[in-house]
Amino acid sequence: MDKKTVAVIFGGESSEYEVSLKSASAVIENLDKEKYDVIKIGITREGRWLRYEGNIDNIRNNTWFLDDHCKEVMISPGKGNENLIEVENGMLTHTKIDVAFPVLHGKNGEDGTLQGLFEIAGIPYVGCNVTTSSICIDKDYTHKIVEYEGFNVPKSLAINHQTPEEEIDGFAKAVNYPVYVKPAQEGSSIGMTKAENRLQLFQGIKEALKFDEKVVLEEMIHGFEVGCAILGNDDLIVGTVDEIEIPGGFFDFTEKYTLKNSKIHLPARIDHELCERIKTAAKGIYQALGCRGLARVDLFIAEKNRIVFNEVNTLPGFTTGSRFPNMLLHAGMEYKCILDKLIELGMQR
């Protein structure tokens, strides 16, 4: 069997840069070297593309870009057989890529921009396409489409720096405090706050506007959160549903990556009937948004087991300890097999 050349791309200009390094390290470490020739392409915080050929530990500790053997690279926008161009001492070297595996979270990686580059270059890639990626990164657009398709969503209001205070106050009065304040296009709860009163609401809006020009205000859903890992294009594989237990506050960036006060229950502490309803809703949302390859669909379980949409992550955390692979692992799918399947799905383009 001929090996496939897989370009794993990590880093990026996103605020989730460090998360990408951890996810990509796990992917690189677990790709079957009997099946794949792996090219490691790192994008620095400043946006430089470098081919890195050193060990994985330097990716994990964020010293990879200091390696003297890093070479400037670029993706050729012209369709053809030679897709990666390395630049060294004024000389260009071309390398064919069979499939790109972008392991970048958030802006400039998970939002359709990188996917657009692959489309132009004619390179197959893992994950959702340009349209779905750009929609799902935006909490406002995602909620509107999911609601249009008939699913429950929290009441919300999209605002910017020009939105009148009266409109913001009117929304808070209609839904009651607490109100969640979220940058529209940030992941990992970055820039997100929970406002218990008007002062905290406007402080939260000011903070969120540092990360995005559009901010989403959202009512609090009283209940608990569950997640659903989905793998596939047309025939979908669904992992075991998990549950987030949060004693206080909310699942912010620190809690997501330390679980200092929170706990992930796998499987979720729910009965079979509710579990099946969650999976059905998650698959329906996945298909409604046009997801391909993979996504984690997060949902709230409110009063009387009402299922309410939260968000979709088109490239969720991907370490061996992350929720997405663990949900599939619990359902009987090993990490290496997940990677194989994602590459197979990506190459179907």
Automatic annotation (TrEMBL):
<keyword id="KW-0460">Magnesium</keyword>
<dbReference type="GO" id="GO:0005829">
    <property type="term" value="C:cytosol"/>
</dbReference>
<feature type="active site">
    <location>
        <position position="322"/>
    </location>
</feature>
<dbReference type="Pfam" id="PF01820">
    <property type="entry name" value="Dala_Dala_lig_N"/>
</dbReference>
<feature type="binding site">
    <location>
        <position position="313"/>
    </location>
    <ligand>
        <name>Mg(2+) 2</name>
    </ligand>
</feature>
<comment type="pathway">
    <text>Cell wall biogenesis; peptidoglycan biosynthesis.</text>
</comment>
<comment type="similarity">
    <text>Belongs to the D-alanine--D-alanine ligase family.</text>
</comment>
<dbReference type="GO" id="GO:0005524">
    <property type="term" value="F:ATP binding"/>
</dbReference>
<dbReference type="GO" id="GO:0009252">
    <property type="term" value="P:peptidoglycan biosynthetic process"/>
</dbReference>
<dbReference type="InterPro" id="IPR011127">
    <property type="entry name" value="Dala_Dala_lig_N"/>
</dbReference>
<keyword id="KW-0573">Peptidoglycan synthesis</keyword>
<dbReference type="InterPro" id="IPR011761">
    <property type="entry name" value="ATP-grasp"/>
</dbReference>
<feature type="domain" description="ATP-grasp">
    <location>
        <begin position="143"/>
        <end position="344"/>
    </location>
</feature>
<feature type="active site">
    <location>
        <position position="188"/>
    </location>
</feature>
<dbReference type="InterPro" id="IPR005905">
    <property type="entry name" value="D_ala_D_ala"/>
</dbReference>
<dbReference type="GO" id="GO:0046872">
    <property type="term" value="F:metal ion binding"/>
</dbReference>
<keyword id="KW-0963">Cytoplasm</keyword>
<feature type="binding site">
    <location>
        <position position="311"/>
    </location>
    <ligand>
        <name>Mg(2+) 2</name>
    </ligand>
</feature>
<keyword id="KW-0961">Cell wall biogenesis/degradation</keyword>
<keyword id="KW-0479">Metal-binding</keyword>
<keyword id="KW-0067">ATP-binding</keyword>
<dbReference type="GO" id="GO:0071555">
    <property type="term" value="P:cell wall organization"/>
</dbReference>
<protein>
    <recommendedName>
        <fullName>D-alanine--D-alanine ligase</fullName>
        <ecNumber>6.3.2.4</ecNumber>
    </recommendedName>
</protein>
<dbReference type="InterPro" id="IPR011095">
    <property type="entry name" value="Dala_Dala_lig_C"/>
</dbReference>
<dbReference type="InterPro" id="IPR013815">
    <property type="entry name" value="ATP_grasp_subdomain_1"/>
</dbReference>
<dbReference type="InterPro" id="IPR016185">
    <property type="entry name" value="PreATP-grasp_dom_sf"/>
</dbReference>
<dbReference type="Pfam" id="PF07478">
    <property type="entry name" value="Dala_Dala_lig_C"/>
</dbReference>
<feature type="binding site">
    <location>
        <position position="311"/>
    </location>
    <ligand>
        <name>Mg(2+) 1</name>
    </ligand>
</feature>
<feature type="binding site">
    <location>
        <position position="298"/>
    </location>
    <ligand>
        <name>Mg(2+) 1</name>
    </ligand>
</feature>
<keyword id="KW-0464">Manganese</keyword>
<dbReference type="GO" id="GO:0008360">
    <property type="term" value="P:regulation of cell shape"/>
</dbReference>
<keyword id="KW-0133">Cell shape</keyword>
<dbReference type="GO" id="GO:0008716">
    <property type="term" value="F:D-alanine-D-alanine ligase activity"/>
</dbReference>
<comment type="function">
    <text>Cell wall formation.</text>
</comment>
<dbReference type="InterPro" id="IPR000291">
    <property type="entry name" value="D-Ala_lig_Van_CS"/>
</dbReference>
<keyword id="KW-0436">Ligase</keyword>
<feature type="active site">
    <location>
        <position position="16"/>
    </location>
</feature>
<keyword id="KW-0547">Nucleotide-binding</keyword>
